[in-house]
Amino acid sequence: MEGVSVEWVLDDMRNFVRPDTYDLVVNLFTSFGYFDEKQDDIQVLQNVYASLKSGGICVLELMGKEILARIYGPTSSEQLPDGSILVQCHEIFDEWTRIRNEWILIKDGKATSFKFHHTIYSGQELKDRLLQAGFSKVRLFGNLDGEEHGLPAQRLIAAAVKA
Fold it and tell me: 0.85 exceeded by the pTM?
């Protein structure tokens, strides 16, 4: 797209605020909910709200709790195009509010492990946090094409507007 300016910022999202600056904030691929303290997620949303111009939009795209409950399995594996194998192990904990993950990549006879955990949100929980952060209008969708967030949803998409 011509004429579009993109600024890449490297900072802790719990601290970064640039008041009334942005028209759009986009957070994709379940890049939200990785802090151990749940209040930190609200702080991030408050920072996004403060950084948006009036009428600005925040879009969050993540794996919703409802979808995860439908497809959850403790392990899965897949062969990647380069022939390596990715094994994923998952464990739900903290009363179905968090998920612990381990990804094991097996390539050329060597296994490399990566562990992480994050909060899993239902549509209503995410909407509540966005409203708590100050957003006035929040809509939920089931995919990036704007389909309804319901039983066939593939992802949890939240679009929130700063009034």
Answer: yes
pLDDT by residue (tens digit) across 59-117? 999 999 999 999 999 999 999 999 999 999 999 999 999 999 999 999 999 999 999 99
Share of the chain above pLDDT 70, in %: 99
Residue 155: closest CA among 132, 110, 123:
123
Domains with residue ranges and CATH for the chain: 22-64+121-161 (3.40.50.150), 71-118 (2.20.25)
- Cα–Cα distance between 124 and 162 in angstroms, integer? 18
- Residues 6 or more apart whose Cβ sits within 8 Å of residue 146: none
Q: Is the Cβ–Cβ distance between 158 and 59 less than 8 Å?
A: yes
Residues in CB range of 127: below 8 A, 6 or more apart = 138, 140, 158
